[in-house]
Amino acid sequence: MKKIGFLSFGHWTNSESSRTRSAADVLLQSIDLAVAAEELGADGAFFRVHHFAQQLASPFPLLAAVGAKTSRIEIGTGVIDMRYENPLYMAEDAGAADLIAGGRLQLGISRGSGEQVIDGWRHFGYTPAEGETHADLARRHTEVFYEVLRGKGFAHPNARPMFANPPGLLRIEPHSAGLRDRIWWGSGSNATAVWAAKMGMNLQTSTLKNDETGRPLHIQQAEQIRAYREAWNEVGHTRVPRVSVSRSIFALVNDQDRMYFGRGNQSDDTVGFLDDDVRKIFGRTYAAEPDVLIAELAKDDAIAAADTLLLTVPNQLGVDYCAHVIDSILKHVAPALGWR
């Protein structure tokens, strides 16, 4: 059994071929897709965060709106770039959104990936300290955020406050109990997966990873997941960690599916570089008739090792088609693989 959700990058383009012509279109359709996915029986609605781009950016208004419109589905991100975040303000936003959603938030956070501008986090007022890299900056922000979510007081109260304070040091409010156990680290390497395990965070691994061995992506990710779980057990955390894998998967069940995804493109992993000199491996797209798809997915070691699968959806094709993509996997693929 696996939890199956969707992951949307939230693109919009003012063109005739796009069903999302504006930011308003993307935001409102993201809410509608989450509602539709819940009705179909999916388990999660996750959203990517990019800055300086015609894509979803500030996640918490959207997460809160989705939380208010749904009742069961998990709501999350994949991922929030912590280089851009004020950890304390983020803890307030996250606590509020989680309370609105009734404790269903699953926040994926990370260093993020290449952005549209050079060192965009500097425009947000954040600069690495002397001797730090931008990745160190992200982890420093993460450590502060993760610690604050414990709900312990740390700020000295004013001797003459506007309103009466509870006794002792004050904490960030609103506090949502349990949210700290629902923070995920989006890891692009074995080393950061081990770091996440030591911190006590869940693990997200996507369709992109540092190419550390030259082997297929799913094998490298399965090795990454094993390293994560081994580190988790060595530390001795008391709860069972969660692991998600993202994949582009399309069951070809009608002519529209075949028109969009039936041409056999991206049927193999590819390698390349993004914003650094580290070689990356990019995951293939799975697109085939359901019986063929079932046989192919049964060989994906990383999906087998994970408890949660996030289906990347082509949001610019509209809510109805994205819901169809999700429904096709739930009906025609998941049962045969034992995911349902």
Would you give an account of this structure?
With 340 residues, the protein is of the alpha/beta class. It has one domain: TIM Barrel, CATH 3.20.20. It contains 11 helices and 13 strands. An 8-stranded parallel beta barrel has the order 1-2-3-5-6-7-9-13, surrounded by 7 helices. It has a 3-stranded antiparallel β-sheet with strand order 8-11-10, with helices on one face. A hairpin with a 7-residue loop joins strand 10 and strand 11. The longest helix has 19 residues. It is globular and about 70 Å long. This is LLM class flavin-dependent oxidoreductase.
Q: Decide which structural class fits the backbone.
A: alpha/beta
The multimeric state of the shown protein is single chain
CATH topology: TIM Barrel
Proportion of residues in β-strands: 15-25%
**CATH architectural arrangement:** Alpha-Beta Barrel
Query: How many domains, as an integer?
Result: 1
For this structure, what is the CATH class? Alpha Beta
The first-to-last residue Cα distance is 5 Å
Q: CATH superfamily name?
A: Luciferase-like domain
Number of helices: 11
How much helix, percentage-wise, in residues?
25-40%
In the sheet with the most strands, the strands line up as 1-2-3-5-6-7-9-13
The biggest beta sheet, please? 8 strands, parallel, barrel
